[in-house]
Structure formats: C-alpha cells, structure tokens
Design brief:
This protein is mainly α and 233 residues long. It is 76% helix and 0% strand. It is built from eight helices and no strands. Helix 2 crosses helix 4, helix 2 crosses helix 7 and helix 5 crosses helix 7. The longest helix is centred in the middle third of the chain and has 32 residues. The chain is globular, with a radius of gyration of 21 Å.
Length: 233
C-alpha cells in the first residue's frame, strides 16, 4: 500500500505543471545548444567542399576507438530525439491545461500575448517538426535529393538549394524563421522557469533572448541563400 501511494505521488509530481515547465526548459537548452553547434557546422560550407566534407566526416569518427563509427552521432540523435519528445509532450500538456483554465470571451493585453505565444510555439513547432523530417531525409539519409543524390554532404547541400529548387529554399527559410520566433519566446520562458527572470534582469534577458534568436536565424539563412544566389557552389 505504501509503495503504491509513493508511486502515485511520484507520478503526480512528474506530471505537475512545475515539472513539465522545468522539463521544457532543460530540453529547450539542449536543443538551443544543438542549433548553435549545427549552425556553426553549416557555416563551414564557406570554406569549400573539402572543409565541409571533412567536418562532416569528423563527426562520424568522433570518439573512436572508444565509440564505433557514427557512435557519437547516434548518441546525439538519441539525446535530441528524447529531448524533442519530452519537449513536445510537455508543451502539449501545458497548452491543454492552459486552454481548459482560460475563461471564455476574455480579451486584454495578456490574452493577446498568450495568443502570440500560442501561435509562435504551437504552429511554429508543427512547421519545425515537418521541416526536421524533410531535412533528415534530404541532408542525412539522402532519400530526398533535389538536384541529385550525392555521397558528399557539401554537394547535397549545394544541389538542393539551386535556383530551380526555389521552393526548397523558401520552405527552409520559412522554417528557420519559425525556429527564430520559437527560440525568442522559448528562451524567455526557459529563463523565467529556471528563476532567472527577475524584475531587474528583464531588459537584459529580453536582449539575450532576441540576440540568440537573431544569430541562429541569420546563421542558418546565410547558407541556403548563398547557394541560391550563386555565392557558394
């Protein structure tokens, strides 16, 4: 009986609003760090094909011989997948709870802010999820290959963003902009959840969240647009 009660209490604790917000904050930090690292990796395209392909190969052999070939990448993929699933689950549950608790026909500034957050995080998250699937099939597994499949990561990138595939570039850019809005609101929310958002720090935290979101967004947009407009290729 005691074990059953303890298990129930633990289950309720893990499903509490505080626990879910904390889970979103922590997984959000993991995803932001990944985005920054991934953005840096993408910028290697400006160093040429050899440098970009070498960087891609280095990730696959990182940790050898302690890890098998692509061992590091698989660890990273598992961590990222777990983070995404936990992040999405917490977001859906919190959104559902907020919707049930929200009074009807209630409009003011806070309601408008909630609407902005809802569209930014919920619909932006859906677009990002769809883009992530496309991006993996395009750049990782090579199953989708606009411009032609290639064993070279550099060539796959260059092939996929040629001017005739403007719709691929457009989809990429819209998705990256959605990531930027998601980051802007997400970083602010994460800092609030982790207790850093005090009245005296609000302006500084707002600047930090905006700068990180802008850097990541611009950093990801530079690569495909440079290929499309003939600056890389």
């Amino acid at each position: 009986m005691a074990n059953s009660t303890l298990t129930k209490q633990r289950s309720e604790a893990f499903r509490s609003t505080v626990a879910l917000k904390s889970a979103m904050a922590v997984t959000g930090v993991i995803l932001v760090l990944f985005l920054i690292a991934h953005m840096y990796g993408n910028l290697n395209v400006f160093a040429g094909q050899e440098a970009f392909d070498s960087y891609s190969h280095h990730l696959r052999v990182l940790g050898q011989p302690m890890l098998p070939y692509e061992g590091f990448l698989w660890i990273m993929r598992v961590v990222l997948l777990a983070s995404i699933l936990i992040h999405a689950y917490a977001a859906v549950v919190l959104w559902s709870r907020a919707k049930r608790a929200r009074p009807t026909r209630y409009q003011n500034k806070k309601a408008l802010q909630r609407t902005y957050a809802s569209y930014t995080m919920r619909w932006g998250g859906v677009l990002i999820a769809l883009f992530a699937i496309f991006h993996i099939l395009h750049m990782t597994t090579n199953d989708i290959a606009p411009g032609g499949a290639s064993d070279s990561p550099y060539q796959r990138l260059v092939n996929g963003f040629q001017p005739e595939f403007w719709y691929v570039t457009l989809f990429y850019c819209l998705s990256v902009i959605a990531v930027g809005f998601h980051l802007r609101h997400g970083i602010w929310s994460a800092l609030t959840t982790l207790g850093a958002n005090r009245a005296t720090r609000q302006r500084a935290l707002n600047i930090i969240a905006t700068v990180i979101a802008l850097v990541v967004t611009i950093g990801f947009l530079i690569t495909p647009l440079s290929v499309t407009f003939g600056l890389v290729g």
